[in-house]
Amino acid sequence: MKPLIPPPVAAETWRYPKPYGLKTLILSLMAMFVLWQTAVRVELPKAVALTAEAVGSVFGSGAESQVAKGFATVAGQLFPLEMSERVEVSRIENFDRENLPAFSYIEHETTEVETLNPDTLEVEAATETTEILVKPYGYLMTVGVKMLETLEIALWGTILAVILGLPLALLGASNLAPNRWVQGLSRSVVSLLRAVPELISALFLVLAYGFGPMAGILALALHAAGFFGKFYADDIEAADPKPQEALRAIGAGCLKVFRHAILPMVWPNYIASTLYILDRNVRMATVIGLVGAGGIGQELKGRYDMYDYGHVGTILVAIFVLVLILEQISVRLRKHYL
Amino acid sequence: MIRFEAVSQTHSCGTQALKNISLTIPAGQVCVLLGPSGAGKSSLLRCVNGLNQPTAGKVFVGDIEITPRNLKTIRPNIGMIHQAFNLTTRATVAANVIAGALPAVPTLPALFNLFPREHQAKVCELLDRVGLSEAHLTRRVSELSGGQQQRVGIARAFMLDPAIILADEPVASLDPAVSEDILALLVREARARGATVLCSLHQLDLARQFADRIVALKSGELVFDGPPADLTPDACARIYQTPGIPALQPEPA
């Protein structure tokens, strides 16, 4: 009787392609060599050694560590966090002693002052008392207001970026662009917008629009429009072409095809990338304040320059909490929409 | 009426998809295109609404020659049904069907998804005729079965009451029973409106059952043209067999 399955021929004579060849090996060795060279140039081995030393000193190896000392100094200056606000009563106009703001109280501060008596020409010691209004959580309020401004800057930066980026994306997507010149132009504008960091454009926008949130919003919007112009366009190009063909076949124009055959398909991606940019803008909005573009960053820079490290600590913790909360919100939104 | 005059098409890679096809399909006829894969059925179909530009020859719809310039005005009169349904799967059934009326709506309202009341009424009417219910209106297309999706595709194609329906292997991915239902539905709706149908198929039995006329292509050439009664086993062999390559024999036990 003949066997049901014919004897193996192909299995013995054919050769299955190898997963890796000599070329791959040589290329990866070369890549490793180049990477090692650059690591040495940027002092990466030294960073690893210093970190190891710091960890060792914390766990009691006895060795002196410059890094650990640095961290200790920073922590010592940031903590305790400063949450109160102190104002001299004499500086407050129309001060109403009967109706103090909630939680606040008046502190008396006495200072020894040495004055020269013009009659006797002798130095006399005297005590001067200043009344100070202490609001125990006053600085938290200030930080809160500035945080709100930061959020508003991020929100409007994102909204303006969508308004600016979406048309650029439509013109820059190969399947919607009217011709290759327009597509190329749009893609170049988008790359240019993305190439200028917020911090740099904020520097110049502050010169043009003055200190405050306006410059911040515009700086964020321009940079984020560069991101949206790319993300949205890439999503449009990657969208399923079949529904687009169906609507083109009955004579629908580009905008209608986008609205009815592309947008519903790419909607989850648009939500995801918009949320990502909003998240990024909140973080960037805290940074661009450093150059005077409004928000918490401006407050941070001011306090830092006045060596109020306790206040700086409060601001840093507030930023951290805000980013954490936003992360939770965006995770929830994503779960809901995707 | 559709008229092909000496239509040829060469792809950019050099393969000739259509070789000098001349054919007239009178108004109201249901014409089925047969032929092996790669014979040029889709290419010929897509010449009618300009999704393909023939490299030589002319295509007329009614008395008007199809040119890149008048495509936009002619296309709303030509409905199309696709092999892969080509629906916006993440959108609702209602949104997909009403999208069939897009050429008749100004751009601005269309962008805000605002359609006139008569179009909304027509969607309901058509969905009822293709055998779907009111509950389907708000369902996502991706939740429907293949047969239901093609019903949505047919409803979309008839939104503007086109004079011509092009169907590119409308039942290729459906099981035999559903295929028959879908084709019956398509032909019934087309005949009710007096629309001309050009439909490519792979199922000979369905072709015999529904066609007024059968046209067969092979390697881009017209090899058969006649009523379903003329489609003898001999003719089928001529259409589908490739000379020189014997049919695959079952392995001897």
From TrEMBL, chain A:
<keyword id="KW-1133">Transmembrane helix</keyword>
<comment type="similarity">
    <text>Belongs to the binding-protein-dependent transport system permease family.</text>
</comment>
<feature type="transmembrane region" description="Helical">
    <location>
        <begin position="309"/>
        <end position="326"/>
    </location>
</feature>
<feature type="transmembrane region" description="Helical">
    <location>
        <begin position="153"/>
        <end position="178"/>
    </location>
</feature>
<keyword id="KW-0813">Transport</keyword>
<keyword id="KW-1003">Cell membrane</keyword>
<keyword id="KW-0812">Transmembrane</keyword>
<dbReference type="InterPro" id="IPR000515">
    <property type="entry name" value="MetI-like"/>
</dbReference>
<feature type="domain" description="ABC transmembrane type-1">
    <location>
        <begin position="147"/>
        <end position="330"/>
    </location>
</feature>
<dbReference type="InterPro" id="IPR005769">
    <property type="entry name" value="PhnE/PtxC"/>
</dbReference>
<dbReference type="Pfam" id="PF00528">
    <property type="entry name" value="BPD_transp_1"/>
</dbReference>
<feature type="transmembrane region" description="Helical">
    <location>
        <begin position="199"/>
        <end position="222"/>
    </location>
</feature>
<dbReference type="InterPro" id="IPR035906">
    <property type="entry name" value="MetI-like_sf"/>
</dbReference>
<protein>
    <submittedName>
        <fullName>Phosphonate ABC transporter, permease protein PhnE</fullName>
    </submittedName>
</protein>
<keyword id="KW-0472">Membrane</keyword>
UniProtKB/TrEMBL annotation, chain B:
<keyword id="KW-0067">ATP-binding</keyword>
<keyword id="KW-0547">Nucleotide-binding</keyword>
<keyword id="KW-0813">Transport</keyword>
<dbReference type="InterPro" id="IPR027417">
    <property type="entry name" value="P-loop_NTPase"/>
</dbReference>
<keyword id="KW-1003">Cell membrane</keyword>
<dbReference type="InterPro" id="IPR050086">
    <property type="entry name" value="MetN_ABC_transporter-like"/>
</dbReference>
<keyword id="KW-0472">Membrane</keyword>
<dbReference type="GO" id="GO:0005524">
    <property type="term" value="F:ATP binding"/>
</dbReference>
<feature type="domain" description="ABC transporter">
    <location>
        <begin position="2"/>
        <end position="244"/>
    </location>
</feature>
<dbReference type="Pfam" id="PF00005">
    <property type="entry name" value="ABC_tran"/>
</dbReference>
<dbReference type="InterPro" id="IPR012693">
    <property type="entry name" value="ABC_transpr_PhnC"/>
</dbReference>
<keyword id="KW-1278">Translocase</keyword>
<protein>
    <submittedName>
        <fullName>Phosphonate ABC transporter ATP-binding protein</fullName>
    </submittedName>
</protein>
<dbReference type="InterPro" id="IPR017871">
    <property type="entry name" value="ABC_transporter-like_CS"/>
</dbReference>
<dbReference type="InterPro" id="IPR003439">
    <property type="entry name" value="ABC_transporter-like_ATP-bd"/>
</dbReference>
<dbReference type="InterPro" id="IPR003593">
    <property type="entry name" value="AAA+_ATPase"/>
</dbReference>
